[in-house]
Amino acid sequence: MKIIVIGAAGTIGQKIVAAIEDGHEIIKVGRKSGDLHADITDPGSLKELFEKAGKFDALVNASGDVAYSPFRELDDSHFDVGYKSKFLGQVHLVTLGKDQINDGGSITLTSGILSHEFVPFGSAGSAMNSAIETFAQAAACEIGRGIRINVVCPGLLEESAKAYGSYFPGHIPVSGSKVAQFYKRSIFGVETGKVFLAIR
Amino acid sequence: MKIIVIGAAGTIGQKIVAAIEDGHEIIKVGRKSGDLHADITDPGSLKELFEKAGKFDALVNASGDVAYSPFRELDDSHFDVGYKSKFLGQVHLVTLGKDQINDGGSITLTSGILSHEFVPFGSAGSAMNSAIETFAQAAACEIGRGIRINVVCPGLLEESAKAYGSYFPGHIPVSGSKVAQFYKRSIFGVETGKVFLAIR
Predict the structure, then answer these.
(1) Cα A41 to Cα A193: distance, rounded to the nearest angstrom
(2) Nearest 5°: phi and psi at A23?
(3) N or C: which end of chain B has fewer CB atoms below 10 A?
(4) Are the beta carbons of B135 and A123 separated by less than 8 Å?
(5) Residue A56's beta-bridge partner residues?
(6) Interface list for B 111-150 with A (CB within 8 A)
C-alpha cells in the first residue's frame, strides 16, 4: 500500500510511521523534512504534493495547529489560526486529495481532545477540533468511490506532558505508540466517518 | 427580565418572542427591522447594539448563515460564510456581550441539525454548526459571574419544510413553536453548557 504521512517527523507522526511502515511504501511529508515537502496551511503546496506523489492508497495527516488564549483575551486571531490550519488545512487534504487517492483508499485526519473535554485557554481549539471532526463525518457520507475518512482525536501525549501537561490538569497522558494504533486501525480497517478517541 | 433577541423577525425569532414576551422587556433586533439594528457578521454593529441596549439579563440569537454546496464543488468560500456568520458572529455575541450582561444572565445561541445529522450539500454547515456548539460548551466553563451559555440546535422547521425540505430527506419537521420552548428553557432555566436538540 502506498501511504502518504504528513507531519511524519512530528511526535505522533514518527510513531505512526513506525507502526505502519512494515511492508508498505511510506511517503513522509513535512514542512522542511521528509521525502516531499508541504504545509497544510498552503493549498498550493498541497497541490504540488499530490502531483509529485501520484496515485496513493492512504493519506494520513498528523499536522495542524490551534491557538491557546485566556478566555477574556480571545479575539479573531486565535480562532483564525485553527480555522486556517487544523480546519481548512485538513479540509483541503480531503478536497484536493480525493482526486489522487485510489478507489477504496482512506484519509485519516487529526483533531485533539479539546473537541470533547474543555480546559483553560482551550476554547478556540475546542471549536476548530470539533469542526474538523464533524466535517470529516459529513464528508465520509459524500466522498464516494469507497474512500473512507476518519479522524483520530489524541489525548494529552506522554511525550508532550512535560511541556503541555499544565494546560491539562488531571488528564492522564497516553503514549504516542498507543495513539498510533488508532491511525493503523483507520488505515487498514473498514470503518469510515469515525472519530477515534485515542485517550487510553 | 430584559432580554435581547437578535433575528427577532425571523421564522424562529418570532416564535421565541411570542413564547417569552409576557412579563419581560424584549429588545427586538434585526438587520433592518426591530427596536435596534445589528448584523452578527459586523462586530462594529454589535458593539453599537450593546452600547445602546445597556445592561441586560438574557441574550438570544436566532440569526446566522451557512452555505450549502455539492460536495465536489466545495471551496473555501462555502466554509467562510459559516465561519464569519454562524461561528464568529455568535462568538462575538459572547465575547462582546459578556461585558454588558448582568451576573447570572444567559446567552442562547443557535446551531442547526447539520451538526449531528448529515445531508447532501451540508458538510460546510455541519462543520460550522458543530464549531459553535463546542465553543459554547467550552465558553460556558470559562465565562464566570454565573453567566450561562447554551445552544439550541433546531431540526428542519415545519415553517421551512416547503422551501428546504428537499435538502432534508426523511427528516420529520418540528414546529417553530416547539423549537421556541427550548430557548425559553435556556433563558429561564438553570442549565449551562448544553446543546438542546430541538428536533421534536
Answers:
(1) 23
(2) 80, 5
(3) C
(4) yes
(5) A101
(6) 114-115, 118, 120, 122-124, 126-135, 137-139, 141-143
Place of cell 495513539: A179
Whole-number pLDDT of residue A97: 98
Three cell numbers, residue B112? 442547526
- What is the DSSP pairing of strand A101-110 with strand B2-6? unpaired
Q: What pLDDT band is residue A61 in, cutting at 50, 70 and 90?
A: very high
Q: Is the dihedral of CA B120, A130, A31, A160 positive or negative?
A: negative
Q: Grid coordinates 440569537 are at which residue? A: B61
CA angle B92, A165, A73 (to 5 degrees): 20
Q: Over B143-187, what HEC string results?
A: CCCCCEEEEEEECCEHHHHHHHHHHCCCCCCECHHHHHHHHHHHH
B40-66 CB burial, b ≥16 within 10 A, e <16: bbebebbeebbeebeebbbbbbbbbeb
The count of other CB atoms within 10 Å of the CB of residue B75 is 14
Contacts with B144 (C-beta within 8 Å, 6 or more apart), sequence order: none
Whether the CB of A88 is below 8 Å from some CB of chain B: the reply is yes
Confidence of residue B135 (pLDDT cuts 50, 70, 90): very high
Residue A59: closest CA among A117, A127, A1 = A1
Q: Please, which residues bridge with residue A27 across strands?
A: A4
Closest C-alpha to B167, from B66, B93, B84? B66
Cα Rg of chain B, angstroms = 16
On whether the pTM is more than 0.90, the answer is yes
